[in-house]
Amino acid sequence: MWSRRAAVVASGMLRSHARPTPLQSADRCSSSSTSAEQQTLSEFSSKYLGHRKASFTEKLEIVDPLKAEAFPIYRVMNYEGKIIDPQHDPKFDQEMAVKAYKKMTLLNIMDRILYDSQRQGRISFYMTNFGEESSHVGSAAALADNDLVFGQYREVGVLMWRGFPLEQFMHQCYGNSRDFGKGKQMPVHYGSSEHHFVTISSPLSTQMPQAVGSAYAFKRAKNGRVVICYFGDGAASEGDAHAAFNFAA
């Protein structure tokens, strides 16, 4: 009996120490490789993609934008001006709605006059805000009047919403002695401490790290103020933009 038990134990030991078959080795290598790939993807996702999921592929596929489905366009109203989802209704009163409409219309008219003035040689430089009026007025309306604004070139509607005088827009673009900056800036480089609008700079994206620094100062002061920064696709390609994003993060 004891000899039979010893034989069974010995047989089990031999099986446990036996050299793995090629198939078993391949399975272990495959499992190890998969684990390493998953670890690499996890580290890459955490470091560069904000924990979004990533995957490897062995198929080189060129995405045809004409065949790929486009990103959906967000909207609140339909073509008839009706709110599609009642939860997204801002519930403006008539006074707010009329003010917003008037400011957008006024900005469009001013753009046409000053653009024509530039083409006629009356002023040296001008940049229009065509098509962006609602983004100015909508974002400005959501802010408090003492929140700080860093603009680029096409955020005139924000100043207009805050009550920047129409005459001052003219004085600034014509660079006369009545301009707040005494004609020392290029046209459309507005600024007003009274309206908490930092004077615009010509170089792209310089306002971005400045905006983040100001916001951090407000955070430390715990004064409840907000900083908003406007920039375009050209500014987003500059090094200052990435410095600002990292600083903000």
Write the layout of secondary structure elements.
Elements: H1 2-16, H2 22-48, H3 94-119, H4 133-141, E1 148-150, H5 156-161, H6 166-174, E2 197-198, H7 207-221, E3 227-229, H8 233-236, H9 239-248
Parallel strand pairs: 1-2, 1-3
Helix pairs in contact: 3-4, 7-9
Keywords: Oxidoreductase, Thiamine pyrophosphate, Transit peptide
Cofactor: thiamine diphosphate
Protein name: 2-oxoisovalerate dehydrogenase subunit alpha
Describe this structure as you would to a colleague:
- This protein starts with a helix and ends with a helix.
- The protein is globular.
- The chain has a 3-stranded parallel beta sheet, covered by helices on one side.
- The N terminus is likely disordered.
- Helices cover about 50% and strands about 5% of the residues.
- It has about 250 residues and is mainly α.
Strands side by side in the biggest sheet:
2-1-3
Low-confidence stretches: 1-18
Work out the helicity level.
40-55%
SSE pattern, N- to C-terminal = HHHHEHHEHEHH
First-residue to last-residue Cα separation: 73 Å
Tally of DSSP helical segments: 9
Strand content: under 5%
Query: Major β-sheet, in short?
Result: 3 strands, parallel
Query: Please, what is the average pLDDT?
Result: 87
Structural shape: globular
Structural class given helices, strands, pairing?
Answer: mainly alpha
What is the radius of gyration?
Answer: 31 Å
What is the number of beta strands?
Answer: 3
